[in-house]
Amino acid sequence: AREKKKGGVLPPDGGWGWMIVAGCFVVTVCTRAVTRCISIFFVEFQMHFARDYSGTAWIHSLVDCTTMLCAPLGSLIGNRLSCRVAVILGGFLASIGLVLSSFATSLEYLYLSLGVLTGLGFALCYTPAIAMVGVYFCERKALAYGIAMSGSGIGTFVLAPLVQLLIEQYSWRGALLILGGFVSNLCVCGALLRPIVLKEEEACPLPVDSESGYNVKLSAGNGVHTEKVTGVKLQFNGKQRCLQSMQEYSFLLMPDFLVLAGSFLLLASGCSLPFVYLVPYSLDVGVSHQHAAFLMSILGVIDIIGNITFGWFTDRRCLKKYRNICYMFAVGMEGICCLFIPLLQTFALLVPFSVLYGYFDGAYVALIPVVTSDVVGTSYLSSALGVVYFLHAVPYLVSPPIGGWLVDTTGTYTATFFLSGFAMISSSLLLFTAAIVRHCQRKQKNGLSKEPQLESCDGKQVDYYTSKNKELMVIIPATS
């Protein structure tokens, strides 16, 4: 009550914020890790329903696509109601979707129950939980996100062999039923997301981190200019209430965000393919089922190291202004790793790939919210994350079936992994090119600002200094 009378508090950068991080951690386990583990069901679905690679790949595509496509809906519910309501509702829908999937009689049934319903539940949970971390942290934001996003890696490490064991013991139907009960823990995570009232003027020293390398001017109106962001209750004066919806998405006109959006489209086109086809590829080259699932576990546990170490390193003052470069490096290296997969045809050679790919995957995933926040500012983070994850939807939908079609057509996985690698390398190069252009423009602007500005001397008395003795010389223009 005392905080409300004062009009808000500063981001605590700790305290209950760590409970928010813990809740977001479990959310990433129950959403992204479970989505990754669906690839372990790939062969089971293919054999049970007697379908080809392309048709079976639509299940994983629909889960990822629906999660990202409905991300703005999660942001909208989080902004209008609360993140708590959004996550609890999403957890209920996701759990119901997995339970219903255990009774599937066709792939089309799984498209709806596992692909659409479960994906919708994940969408309502994922974006609001991530945005809440950004509200509770300012100085240690990258570290907090690194810990929270590491849930996908830890979850993959634990769930991959566990899901394989559940399939062997209870069949794929029993495994999906148990996963449905596990995912219901999202409702508990939603209860942890306690709203916080922030002072708008003191929430962060600047709307965008001054050391991030981006200069963003947020629109300002007359009087108090505030917004409601992921449970942060803010107030508007007069006519600004009518402009709330427009202001929430005004970042869409920022050139830097448009470039970042294009980069995310290319990234999403390639990053999901290794998670879908790593296990089938391993089985195709003679790796056992247990070893193939263990490769996913290795990828997941190294993912954790990438999440936390990159988050901690990029929070250091010496690296803070180079966070976008660290992000480009991680995405580019992940793409290069994919180009070498066709040369790796034994379990011993696939282990180093899982290590490198998992590390750089964890690195860039932890930096996506941070880089987005650096571009658009904390005030727009919730809406921006909704758009960012929405941009992943179409690539997530079409790239696995395209990869499956390439496998069916060529008979090998080479073209599929090449598609993944070149897409991620192109994503990194796009951001790198934009950074070079921005640097050249800033350098040119600084050079122009240092040139002397001379005023016209028509009809005026102008003072000049000589370059040697700097004595004042007065020149009076001749009059007609």
Automatic annotation (TrEMBL):
Major facilitator superfamily (MFS) profile domain mapped to chain residues: 16-438
GO CC annotation, single: basolateral plasma membrane
Transmembrane segments: 16-43, 85-104, 110-136, 143-167, 173-193, 257-279, 291-313, 325-344, 350-371, 378-397, 417-437
Known function: Functions as a transporter for creatine and as well for its precursor guanidinoacetate. Transport of creatine and GAA is independent of resting membrane potential and extracellular Na(+), Cl(-), or pH. Contributes to the process of creatine biosynthesis and distribution.
UniProt KW keywords: Cell membrane, Membrane, Transmembrane, Transmembrane helix
GO molecular function, one term: transmembrane transporter activity
Entry keyword annotation includes Calcium: no
Subcellular location: Basolateral cell membrane
Reaction catalyzed: guanidinoacetate(in) = guanidinoacetate(out); creatine(in) = creatine(out)
Sequence similarity: Belongs to the major facilitator superfamily. Monocarboxylate porter (TC 2.A.1.13) family.
InterPro entries to which the protein is assigned, alphabetical: MFS (IPR011701), MFS_dom (IPR020846), MFS_trans_sf (IPR036259), Proton-linked_MCT (IPR050327)
Protein name, as recorded: Monocarboxylate transporter 12-B
GO biological process: creatine transmembrane transport
Pfam families (UniProt xref): MFS_1
Presence of keyword Zinc-finger: no
Annotated membrane topology: Multi-pass membrane protein
Domain of life (superkingdom): Eukaryota
